[in-house]
Structures are given as C-alpha cells and as structure tokens.
Amino acid sequence: MRSVMMRQAELWELRPQGSNPCRNMRRYRTAPRERFLSAGELQRLGFVLALAEDKQAAAAIRLLLFTGARSSEIAGLEWDRIRGSRAVLPDSKTGPKAIQLAAPARAVLAALPRTGPFVFPNARGDGPMRDLGPRWHRLRALAALDGVRIHDCRHTFASHAVMTGLALYTVGRLLGHADTASTERYAHLADGHVRAAAGRISGIVHGAMTGSGPEDRS
C-alpha cells in the first residue's frame, strides 16, 4: 500500500521521479485463500439452485460442484467434447484434460436443451456463456454465501474428496493439476484419515509382534 502511495505521489509531482523508497523492497506473496462449502452450505445452495429462475446458471454451478472443473472449462464446454462419462478437452489451463462426468453430472447435462455447439450458449446463441461470474453472485446471495467465489466450487469438490479419504494423487488427476504441488494445499484435510490409517497399520504390526491379532492402535 505504501509503495502505491509513493508511486502516485510521483505521478502527481509531489515527490521527485524515481524517489519511491519502496521500489526495491521485496513483496511478500499473500497465501492463497482457501474456502470450501460445508454440508450445510451445500444444502442451502442446492435449495436455491433447485428453485432458481436462471436454470442455465444453476446447471453450470451444479456441474462445477459435481466435477471440480474450472468455471471457464464448464462455461465454454462443447457438446462434441462429451464422450460418455467424460468431457475431453483438447486444451485447458494445464493442457489436454478429461473431466470425469459421474451420474449427477450426466443427469445435469441430460436435462439441458441442445440448441447449438455449446452446452451453455450465450444469449445470442453465437458463442459460449461469458457472464457466469455475475450470475453466480446473484445465486450465492440467495444462498447467504457472501464472499464465496465461483472458484470455491472447485475447492469444495477437492476438499470433500480429500476428506472422504481419496488420495491426493487421485484428487490431482480429477482436478487436472499438472503437478502434485498444486494439490498439496488440501493435504491438511486428510490428517484424520492419515491418523486412522496409522492406527490400523500399527495395530496390525503390534498384533503380529504380540500374537494378539490385529487391533486398532489409533
């Protein structure tokens, strides 16, 4: 903030040009903001989506939550990219990608009208949806989810996957992460499952050593 003020002062000629004392200071990166919807919040959102007048946006949000895909991938999805239980994208943020379409996602797609090449066409019908963000803002307000970003739908999918015990590698594959470092942000959510696994394994080893049979040592 101070650097911005100093730079603005130079533009207004209130300070000599090049005199900003903050220009060579190292900027600290802000830690990524983590947010995912709880079961209660998902229930509220589900109720709002079921009654929403904006059926197209509601369907797009459901697909985000059911697939963990990026909003741009869903908004720009084309019908001919859907191959059974997958949507095959030739190019995404991290290169070619297959979005897994489980039964709830396929049900959403089956209920949509097919009026052109795009699953979610814009109002003119000559391209993909471009305004999902503002439409999400209206839906989240109805669900009392102030401050929840559309990208948090992706975090919700990933977070609940990890909390059910799914391996980080598998979650990364589902999200289309190019490297495991991107998925590591969810590692802390698996702590309970890791502790439980450690208890089961140590119980097996302890039982074998003592002849008492396997037991849970968590």
Topology record:
Layout: H1 2-11, H2 39-51, H3 55-67, H4 71-75, E1 82-83, E2 86-89, E3 97-100, H5 103-110, H6 132-142, H7 152-163, H8 168-175, H9 191-210
Helix pairs in contact: 3-5, 3-6, 3-7, 7-8
User: Helicity, in percent?
Assistant: 40-55%
Shape: globular
Poorly predicted ranges (pLDDT <50, ≥5 residues)?
Answer: none
CATH class of the largest domain: Mainly Alpha
Mean pLDDT: 82
Q: What's the total number of strands?
A: 3
Distance between the termini: 48 Å
Helix/strand-derived category reads: mainly alpha
For this structure, what is the CATH homologous superfamily of the largest domain? Intergrase catalytic core
* Element-by-element helix/strand order: HHHHEEEHHHHH
* CATH hierarchy: architecture of the largest domain: Orthogonal Bundle
Count of discrete structural domains: 2
Strand fraction: under 5%
**Rg computed from alpha carbons, rounded to a whole number of angstroms:** 23 Å
Major sheet summary line:
3 strands, antiparallel
| Spatial strand arrangement across the major sheet | 1-2-3
